[in-house]
Design goal:
Keywords: Signal. Residues 1-20 form the signal peptide. It comes from Brochothrix thermosphacta (Microbacterium thermosphactum). The protein is mainly β and 381 residues long. 6% of the residues lie in helices and 43% in strands. Strands 9-15-16-19-20 form a five-stranded mixed beta sheet, with no helix packed on it. It starts with a helix and ends with a strand.
């Protein structure tokens, strides 16, 4: 009930209580949304039927966060979306739909050069399988489905499930083994294979176990399993890949660097002392790359989020000072056409949208935002 009341207040504010200088412009499709160049930030609150928000609302704000205009978009296909950027294609923001129980063969992209949305349909499946997400590193777009392409169902066996892995470029698809479905993390295209971190599953002894790191060859359908920590309870974040190496970060604070011969080296990211002091890694926190060699990443320490800059070549990091203390930091996006990085700092019910310079990483602007739990991404037009 409290959430519904908050949402009602939110819609009322968006509808006019903020007294925008011009009238909000309705649009029938997100792909038709082209407000023109203004130098202002646009905050996207996509539709979410779970909380009775049937439209996508977009707030145009100035540098102080004051609302200039409000746009409403009635698009039945577009809803809550999580942004992702691949440093090989930095001007594309990939948008993975989430939240509602829908099985759809499409996702969205936003082009930072043209400032336009595109709906990307996957038309080589015989039936709707759903797109889990399009988080990916490497030259080609690999993704996981929600249902198996072999049966069109979410197959279950002894409490274990399987899905499918597909490549949108080659249209090759394979079904995963039971208990080896991908976690909600990126897929890595490396050395003619696809690598990912597997979901932990609950066994008959009520213990969480997993396959560690999984690789598959989409041509042969062969699967292999890697477990660098020899620990079936470890979780791994596929962190990045380039032509020579791929990188995984474990929730125990270790980077694993694999070469093309699958030789692995260990690099301590967090020390045992830091882990004992309360530092922790959430593998669903994805990095935000600002070039092919550096990425922003967040870790938690005693209910405080830390912003780090990681050097991929050395696997070392330095902390980026952020004035103010936040319980969590969400890495929103990097716009190299504006030379700006957008992050969201949250503490309790309060949230600030921060703009960082992409070279100095200094805070250029900061203002409070409403309803951060409904805010998915920001764009400067």
């Amino acid at each position: 009930m409290k959430l519904k009341i908050l949402l009602l207040i939110f819609i009322v504010i968006l509808a006019g209580c903020s007294q925008p200088k011009t009238q909000g412009i309705p649009s029938e499709k997100i792909t038709n949304f082209k407000p023109g160049s203004s130098g202002n930030l646009f905050l996207f609150y996509p539709s979410d039927n779970r909380v009775s928000q049937l439209k996508t609302y977009v707030k145009e704000v100035d540098n102080a966060g004051e609302v200039i205009n409000v746009f409403s978009i009635e698009d039945a296909d577009f809803r809550r979306a999580e942004p992702f950027q691949n440093p090989l294609y930095p001007n594309t923001i990939y948008l993975s739909l989430f939240g509602e129980a829908k099985i759809e063969n499409f996702f969205y992209e936003f082009d930072l050069d043209t400032k336009t949305f595109a709906k990307k349909k996957i038309d080589y499946f015989k039936e709707p399988l759903g797109v889990s997400n399009v988080f990916h590193y490497g030259k080609q777009l690999n993704f996981s489905t929600i249902l198996s392409h072999e049966t069109g169902e979410q197959n279950e066996k002894d409490g274990l499930f399987n899905v499918s892995i597909s490549n949108i470029d080659s249209e090759k698809t394979v079904e995963t083994p039971y208990g080896a479905s991908p976690a909600y993390t990126p897929l890595l295209g490396f050395n003619n294979n696809v690598f990912y971190g597997a979901n932990l599953t609950l066994n008959k002894k009520d213990e969480f176990t997993g396959k560690g790191i999984v690789s598959t060859n989409l041509e042969t359908g062969e699967f292999k399993f890697l477990n660098p920590e020899n620990d079936t309870t470890a979780s791994y974040l596929p962190f990045y890949t380039n032509d020579d190496f791929m990188f995984f970060l474990s929730d125990s604070g270790v980077f694993y660097k694999y070469d093309k011969d699958m030789r692995v080296t260990h690099h301590k990211f967090l020390t045992s002392e830091q882990l004992d002091k309360g530092y922790s890694i959430d593998i669903e926190n994805k990095p935000l790359f600002i070039n092919k060699h550096e990425a922003l990443y967040t870790v938690s320490h005693s209910k405080t989020a830390l912003l780090l800059l990681i050097d991929i070549d050395t696997l070392s990091f330095k902390e980026i000072p952020i004035k103010g203390s936040y319980e969590s930091i969400r890495l929103m996006s990097y716009d190299n056409t504006k030379d700006e990085i957008y992050i969201l700092g949250e503490k309790g019910d309060s949230a600030d949208l921060l703009t960082l310079d992409d070279i100095t990483l200094h805070i250029e602007n900061k203002f409070k935002v409403d309803y951060p739990h409904l805010l998915d991404f920001v764009i400067k037009y």
